[in-house]
């Protein structure tokens, strides 16, 4: 269906994370697809991301992807109903707020004002496409 390769990206600094954020802009996920494993110190988000790298003028493609943050020490949610497992959220951005080096917080910002603040000992983020892409007639739009 496509000639663009599947993404496999690693972020270990804020500049790397900006690339992952761009790839994940307008990804959609269910609240139930966000999992924090305190014992493994990981937060995983499974989502359907729009393939911006494809550059389609009309429609485009989506692909199932997984974002994993490592060395997680805590997670705070704001305006996200954790009990609404089937509620769909749209990811707008992923950013890093530096703290005591090399740690800080990864901020996942969602449409509608919700966000996750993920405290980390260091920046260790992986994004990987995990399925074949599929066509979509809906390209995400943004107000100018």
Mean pLDDT: 93
Structural class: mainly beta
Q: What is the succession of H and E elements?
A: EHEEEEEEEEEE
Q: What is the number of helical segments per DSSP (H or I, 4+ residues)?
A: 1
Strand content: over 45%
Amino-to-carboxy terminus distance: 31 Å
Describe the largest sheet: 6 strands, antiparallel
Report the radius of gyration as a whole number of Å. Answer: 15 Å
Global geometry: globular
Number of domains: 1
Residue stretches low in confidence (pLDDT < 50, at least 5 long) are none
Strand runs, count: 11
Q: State the helical fraction.
A: under 10%
Entry summary:
With 144 residues, this protein is mostly beta strands. It has one helix and eleven strands.
Annotate the secondary structure layout:
Elements: E1 8-11, H1 14-24, E2 27-30, E3 34-37, E4 42-50, E5 60-69, E6 72-78, E7 88-98, E8 104-110, E9 115-120, E10 125-129, E11 134-136
Antiparallel strand pairs: 1-10, 2-7, 3-4, 4-5, 5-10, 5-11, 6-9, 7-8, 8-9
Polypeptide structure, described:
This protein is mainly beta and 144 residues long. The chain has one domain (8-133). It has one helix spanning 14-24; strands at residues 8-11, 27-30, 34-37, 42-50, 60-69, 72-78, 88-98, 104-110, 115-120, 125-129, 134-136. The strands form 2 sheets. Strands 1, 3, 4, 5, 10 and 11 form a 6-stranded antiparallel sheet that branches. Strands 2-7-8-9-6 form a 5-stranded antiparallel sheet. A hairpin with a 4-residue loop joins strand 3 and strand 4 (42-50). The longest helix has 11 residues, at 14-24.
